[in-house]
Amino acid sequence: MRMPPFQLHTPKSLEEALSIAGELTSGGLEFDWIAGGTDLLPNYKWHLNVKPNVISLAKVSELTELNSTHIGAMVRLHDLANSSTIHPVLAKAADSIASVMIRRSGTVGGNICLDTRCYWFNQTEQWRESIDWCYKCDCGTGADCRVIPNQNTLCVATYQADLAPVLMCLEATIHLAGPNGTRSMALSDFFQLDGITRNVLESGELVTHLTLPDDVSEWQGDYQKLRQRESWDFPEAGVAALWKKNGTSKPEQLRVATTGLESIPMLHSEEVQNALEDWSGADSINKLAESIRKAVKPVQNTWYAPSYRRKMVKVLTRRACAGLLEGDN
Amino acid sequence: MAKEGNEDEMVGYRQQPGKLPFAKPGSGGKERFSRPTDEGLIPESQGGELAQPWGSHRHDNLVSGQVIGKPTALVDGRWKVTGQAQYGDDIRLPGELIARIIRSPHHYARVLSIDCSKAFELPGVVAIATGADAANKFGVLPVTKDEHAMAVDKVRHVGDLVACVAAEDEATAREAERLIEVEYEILDSIHDMRDGLKNNEYPIHDRGKYHIGNTNVQKRVFQEFGDVDGIKTNAIASHKENWLFAGVNHAATEPHAVVAHWDPSGRLTLYTPQQVPHYVHRALADVLEIPMHQINVHRTFVGGGFGGKSDPFPHEMCSAILARKSGRPVRITFDREEVYWINRGRHPSRIEMNLHADDKGRICGIETDALIDGGGFASFGHVTTYYNGVLHTAPYEIEAFHYTGARVWTNKPASGAMRGHGAVNSRCAVETGLDDLAEQLSVDPIDLRLANLLPPHSATITGFRVTSIGMRECLERVKEESCWDEKFRKMPLGKGIGIGCGFFISGSGLPIHWDPNKFPHATVHLKIDMDGGVTVHTGAAEIGQGSDTVVAQSVAEVLGLPLDMIRIRSRESDTAPVDLGSYSSRVTFMNANAAISAAMQIRDELLDATVEITGADREKLVIGDRRIFAKNDPAVGVSYLEALHKAQEDRGALVASGAYRTPPMGRVHKGAAAGLAPAYSFSAYVAEVSVDVETGQTKVDKVWAAHDCGKALNPLAVKGQIIGSCHMGMGQVLSEEMRYGRNGHLMNPDLLDYKIPSVHEMPEIIPIIVESNDPEGPFGAKEAGEGPLLPILPAVCNAVYDAVGVRTAELPITPDRLLRLIERKCKTEGIDDQLDLQSPRLAHSELQAVLAARAEEHSKRDLERRMNDDREPYHNGALFGLDPTTPPDEVDERWAVNVIPSDDYLAEPRLAGNAWKHTERRHRGDS
Question: Do A126 and B735 touch (CB under 8 A)?
Fold first, then answer.
């Protein structure tokens, strides 16, 4: 395994980073951002969509701020997991990512922007050559998708990052900066259903930070994750459930989001709305879990079979919502 | 200046006129004074205080109380932890070239042409080789040499070698890799091992007149022992299961790497992390067509082998060929993916296991049918095919054994030998089957086992000579320490406990390269000069298992030296005597025996010298820490160095050569040699698990692991082997598999998707060492490297059954597979919520008391047999009323050995049995 050659740029400030990005873009040169590198570099070693230029954000200090409502893109996952000010469910999700060594390097921004993964894609060049490449990295061949053949329009690689569902439930706002200025949006609007583009980031644009609403501390909840091993493995399914209670057994507000099942994480507002309309505790949670199971459409491209992952979404949803029933009796 | 009467000056060390006096040599070691002998380490038989409940041993008089039996850090450990150990890829020679291998992108294809012209034009490319450069075949077993350095005519799996290129640096080599154009004609590939049994237009290999029909059957075995026809009438309970075992890879930390150097004197040195340097040595000579003496195989530090580095490999040939072409050293290091392509992991297997019990709770029949998927090459497969059968004919006494086995070629990376070679899968099937039989008979599964064990010093149904057996003690210890009786079938849903046993060879009786000249299996040379340090030359491959340490310990013990006075030279075939390699758990048993025999010669010379100096009675002399003295009068004696210097007079350094060869054993039927060993190890594990019934996830909470290793020469290493085996076995039973996609591609050739258990998955493991004192083992020792892996798989499977009441017949038990079984059970029982499942319970039948009484009686029988040297022979079959002193097949015609299937059998064969429907070409007259 050998890293392909690329030109590394190490700007010291956000402004400099954006200007390098602008120059490269206007020169027609492709590039990738690199934060912790735990996602990008293994993919580069596999020669997956390698770019000739890489802009490192390691020295951009303004992206590392962390407090209860502000999370810089360059905050390390390890620091998020061990932060005393951050929402506990977010810290729990961060703590479940990969292994401690990867968390020490990996960042929040990198986790949000994690490349989608697929058995037919995350392989060496020799391996991919032996299957005649695939749609996500076709190497100029116009290759078909290997997961769902004969559809050459959408990559179905899976988004397997843990932070997004929790942040979506907490109604996080994501802030971007690019050559044309800054913009912000709800995190749920950031993702776009396509395994290749994944999100709305335009060329030269990057994630600067996330903000959480002021009432974030009033939300309770849980994050549940499915994987073969309790370390290293990407989530085969992940369910975040967060709610706000007002003393009655029915939550005042409830949000549920899932990850690891499709090309983007999903906020299940409609299913939750239906469940809240006619709330009856455990039964409602069961119904909600079942409706979310039906709503997700995983494909055969990760360790577990799609049928199992769907079944587990139901179990994970129930478990993530278990706290709702506490003190109910 | 030395003064008159200096106490440091002594007789025999007089100074010459005008010269400085020699200092008194002292004791020789780092410590100035000898330590007093620790009587707690000296066996009772020698008047010491070390209890010997299993009797005395022929090596008792060699025990000096130095290191044997003490937890000892491995002698090469510091090299590793300080980063100074040189593994395969750490070898850097001046002017080295880096080579890359061009591999097949097709499962099965004919190579029509290879065009290297563009690659040659690339600046920095120095040499390119293809199959045309090495026509000779090789393979680890002489009977099945079917590999080439690179494809000659055909490629047989994705990743098979086609060509190789050496360049000034890796980047250039990788660039050149893309420029080599290969034209293929794609052939229809086969991926399902069942298809290997059928006739095929283009079998993956052609064995000429020995080819079996037009199939891809590489090896087939048929064996019947005992009263097979009687099974139907004798059995009151029968178990039948069809197993599917996924293939697993060794996944050693270090990927394969090799450096070849053709030096100016025309000799080849090959630096390689190898388990079997000697077989590589032979294969190199064959492939390169040069005599063996022109080759020096240099074994580097090995970053884990587990069987994955125990074949001569094509990339080793490639580096040597490129080095010869270029005249420069050539290094090849694998990517992890390439490790999966060379594979040699455990065979994917389909095993049908039938077990039968009679009304007395005896095992009246085992019928096994194993179809194993060999992938593209033979490797060790010939042996694996036998081992899947014969290695489960013990530790139980059985009335009948029927085995059909077949190994087929498919277009996958080759399977081969892996820790627990050939025994692991079928053992798992046997032990879970016994659990089921116990369930059917309503008896405790541990008691069922205890009442059916072969006694020490007996012969199995296949005629294996078994000497020491610690099986009963292993079972009793784990039963007691795990509080089995309070837990088994008594824990709530989702909590379970299970038992599994193991039986494994301690060294294979026949060497791979059969020895018409009666070559020994292991030879050790010792050299001691005046400094007192002992140089041990051995070819035994230290692969992390601690073989250097064990041989050092053996020599140190016999000579009464501290470990730091022993230096091991085990790397180079130029200096090391031939050792067959680190496989089949043979090294401690054979190499330590060879070392002891060499050390005994030195010991004799030291004792002679002591007699000469002191005039003491030779019979009364004993060896302590760096001192030889009269046992009855310790003041009479000399230091080790004094004796040594005396012995060196007029001849210089002392040298000795010791060797080990197995005694003649076994019977004469076809295949009788497979599974023969000078000793066998035994083990019993109890595993406690938690199963999440909603997700199917299994977590192993605790394992009590008892292993009979004869004598723990180094208890630290034995415990390490037990714990490491648990980890490896847990991987196979719960998460590891080489997973092939719908078009035959290996989907997970990397360590993220090949799921080796992490530290979070590891349970608490209680290693329990049982020491059965093997009469032929060095100081009583047997193997501890492979056998301890076997029981963990069935123990976990049985614990899962205890927890949720479902039996799995497919490994690994990934959560999705287990959940499917739980759901099926719920459906059959009409249960809506999995949490309402009932876990199994046990009410003992009348048979329980019968078994307990028999176990007790056998316990006495065993004790008597192990302590009494005048014991009568005991042949498997005595439990069923036959005369124990003669092999039953010689006196009872129902017990006749049969290795050819009958027409009746062939009318309705089991799966692998179908291999016998085809005729070898030489017998059908169309060779």
Answer: no
How crowded is residue B925: how many other Cβ atoms within 10 Å of its Cβ?
Answer: 8
Strands B125-130 and B161-167: what pairing? Answer: antiparallel
CATH code, B511-660:
3.30.365.10
- What's phi and psi for B349, nearest 5 deg? -140, 145
Percent of chain B past pLDDT 70, that is, above it, reads 96
Mean pLDDT of chain B: 94
Interface contact flag, A304 B747, Cβ < 8 Å = no
First to last CA, chain A: 58
* Chain-chain contact of A2 with B755 (C-beta, under 8 angstroms): no
Cα–Cα distance, B200 to B679 (Å, whole number): 42
Nearest to B758 among A127, A226, A229 (CB): A229
Q: Does A127 touch chain B (CB under 8 A)?
A: yes
Q: Which percentage of chain B shows pLDDT scores above 90? A: 91
Chain A residue with CA closest to B170: the answer is A2
Asked if the C-beta of B753 comes within 8 angstroms of chain A's C-beta atoms, the answer is: yes
Q: Does A3 touch chain B (CB under 8 A)?
A: no
Write the residue in A129, A231, A304 that is nearest to B816 by C-beta. Answer: A304
Residue of B nearest to A311 (CA): B695
Q: Is B747 on the interface with A (CB under 8 A)?
A: yes
Q: How far is B914 from chain A (nearest CA, A)?
A: 33
CB B162 within 8 A of CB B155: yes
- Please tell me the number of Cα atoms within 13 Å of B67 on its side-chain side: 26
Topology annotation, domain B349-357+415-498+676-865: Aldehyde Oxidoreductase; domain 4 (3.30.365)
CA-nearest of B219, B324, B252 to B88 is B252
B 86-105: CB under 8 A from A: 103-105
CA gap B88, B765 in Å, rounded: 32
Cβ of A329 under 8 Å from any chain B Cβ?
no
Tokens 């491209």 found at:
A301
What was the ipTM of the complex prediction? 0.95
Using the Cβ of B819 and the Cβ atoms of chain A, whether some distance falls under 8 Å is answered with: yes
Would you state the structure tokens that stand for residue B701, as one six-digit string?
């909470």
Strands A253-259 and A206-211: unpaired
Q: Are B815 and A2 within 8 A, CB to CB?
A: no
Intervals of CATH 3.30.365.10 along chain B: 349-357+415-498+676-865, 511-660
- Region at B542 (left for phi over 0; alpha for psi -120 to 50; beta for the rest): beta
- DSSP H helices, B482-576, are 484-487, 547-559
Q: For B896-905, how does the pLDDT look when each residue is reduced to its tens digit (9 = 90+)?
A: 999 999 999 9
Helix/strand/coil (H/E/C) assignment for every residue in B195-227: HHHCCCCCCCCCCHHHCECCCCEEEEEEEEEEC
Q: Which two tokens stand for residue B732?
A: 């196979």
Q: Which domains does chain A have, with CATH numbers?
A: 217-325 (3.30.390.50)
Residues A324 and A220: their CA atoms lie apart, in Å, by 9
Query: Using a CB-CB distance cutoff of 8 angstroms, which residues of chain B are in contact with residue A1?
Result: 335-336
| Best residue in A127, A145, A302 for a mutation probing chain B (most B CBs within 10 Å) | A127
- CA-based nearest residue to A109, from A76, A132, A87, A153: A76
Model confidence pLDDT, tens digit, residues B320-329? 999 999 999 9
- The answer to whether B732 contacts chain A (CB < 8 Å) is no
Interface of A with B in 90-119 (CB under 8 A): 99, 119
Residues in chain A: 329
Strands across the sheet with B400-408, in order?
Answer: B217-226, B400-408, B363-373, B349-357, B237-245, B810-811
CATH code assigned to B88-189+253-304+309-342? 3.90.1170.50
pLDDT of res. B13: 56
